[in-house]
């Protein structure tokens, strides 16, 4: 319970500090948030030593690739992407510059998904599940943990920019399916890879759109 409370306080503090940083589109504006999310992860790994959740299996690759592509296809279908122009990306020096690869490719494509998945799935999901399992049973605890994990995932994005209904629903779906993978496999890497694939495919489409425009 104490670790869960610390996670909520650390994430809230990180989000608040990140909001105070001028929004320049650079990685620097995300560092306070990442710090707030990483601190509970580090504490959990140090205190609880959940070796099972960080174990990697080859099937995690299939979970990650399949789920990430499925989520992107659902997002495209829900927003009628076939009727829309390709998205484009922008960064100082152009979309193919070193700045873009750091600020968008590395931050949004790799670091962001990893930090978010470890916090929302390895910390929030696991702690809520453990807290409720003995009281409500495994099934009810799984459902509650999934909803808490996915709901807080949407909320942290809402803090930085108002979300449309469709965007909020899509993020809720991403959070819910990633949480479901962790609950089904007992490991975090399928969710991490799914989130990475989901973000990277959008960045890839943006590069194609920028190159074609």
From TrEMBL:
Checking InterPro entries in the record gives: Rce1/LyrA-like_dom (IPR003675)
Name by which UniProt lists this protein: CAAX prenyl protease 2/Lysostaphin resistance protein A-like domain-containing protein
**Superkingdom of this protein's organism:** Bacteria
Outline the extent of the CAAX prenyl protease 2/Lysostaphin resistance protein A-like domain. 100-200
Q: Where are the transmembrane segments?
A: 27-46, 58-77, 106-128, 135-157, 163-184, 191-212
Per the UniProt record, the source organism is Microbacterium enclense
Q: Which UniProt keywords apply?
A: Membrane, Transmembrane, Transmembrane helix
Q: Name one GO molecular function term.
A: endopeptidase activity
Provide the GO biological process annotations: CAAX-box protein maturation
């Amino acid at each position: 319970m104490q670790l869960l409370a610390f996670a909520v306080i650390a994430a809230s503090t990180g989000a608040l500090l990140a909001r105070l940083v001028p929004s320049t589109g650079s990685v620097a504006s995300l560092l306070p948030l990442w710090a707030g999310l990483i601190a509970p992860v580090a504490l959990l790994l140090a205190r609880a030593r959940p070796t099972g959740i960080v174990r990697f299996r080859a099937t995690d690759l299939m979970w990650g690739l399949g789920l990430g592509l499925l989520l992107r296809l659902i997002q495209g279908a829900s927003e009628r992407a076939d009727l829309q122009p390709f998205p484009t990306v922008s960064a100082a020096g152009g979309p193919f510059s070193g700045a873009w690869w750091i600020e968008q490719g590395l931050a949004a494509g790799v670091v962001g998904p990893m930090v978010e998945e470890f916090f929302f799935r390895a910390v929030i999901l696991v702690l809520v599940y453990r807290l409720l399992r003995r009281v409500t049973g495994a099934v009810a605890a799984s459902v509650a943990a999934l909803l808490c994990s996915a709901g807080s995932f949407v909320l942290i994005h809402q803090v930085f920019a108002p979300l449309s209904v469709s965007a909020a629903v899509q993020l809720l779906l991403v959070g819910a399916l990633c949480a479901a993978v962790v609950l089904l496999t007992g490991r975090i890497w399928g969710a991490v890879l799914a989130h990475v694939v989901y973000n990277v495919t959008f960045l890839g489409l943006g590069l194609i759109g920028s190159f074609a425009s």
